Amino acid sequence: MEKILGKMTVKEVFFEPVEGGGVYVYEFDNDDEDNEIFLDYFYIATFDDDNGEGVWGIGYDIETALEVAEREWERVVGNEHPNPFREALEEFKIRESKEGKNI
């Protein structure tokens, strides 16, 4: 028997086009403090290769989700195909460093 525990909001917070598709990071946030969901917020990193979108990493921030996804890709796919999360992580770090300089 399924039990609905509450609702969460999902927001796209990062996108990077990469060879063979795109890398997305989504933020999941608890909508209501009265939910029976005790999670605060978390991020997932996905890869969309135009055939479907799959979750590869989860973390407490965008960078961690991308790092976990990068390691999981290496573990599952290896060097057979370029690691899209490595490329996305590098771009994320570039964007972060530019934003830090603008403050």
Features:
4-stranded antiparallel beta sheet, 2 helices, alpha+beta, 103 residues
- The order of strands across the largest sheet is 1-2-3-4
Secondary-structure-based class equals alpha+beta
In N-to-C order, the SSE pattern is: EEEEHH
Biggest sheet, open or closed, and with what strands and sense? 4 strands, antiparallel
Tell me, what's the shape? Answer: globular
- Assembly classification: single chain
Question: Strand percentage, roughly?
Answer: 25-35%
Q: Number of DSSP helices? A: 2
Beta strand count: 4
Rg for CA atoms: 15 Å
Distance between the termini: 51 Å
Helix content range of the residues, please? Answer: 25-40%
Residue stretches low in confidence (pLDDT < 50, at least 5 long) are: none
Mean pLDDT score: 89
Describe the structure.
Helix content is 32%, strand content 35%. With 103 residues, the protein is of the alpha+beta class. Strands 1-2-3-4 form a 4-stranded antiparallel β-sheet. Helix 1 packs antiparallel against helix 2 (84-101). The radius of gyration is 15 Å and the shape is globular. The N and C termini lie far apart (51 Å).
SSE blueprint:
Layout: E1 8-18, E2 21-30, E3 41-48, E4 53-59, H1 62-76, H2 84-101
Antiparallel strand pairs: 1-2, 2-3, 3-4
Helix pairs in contact: 1-2
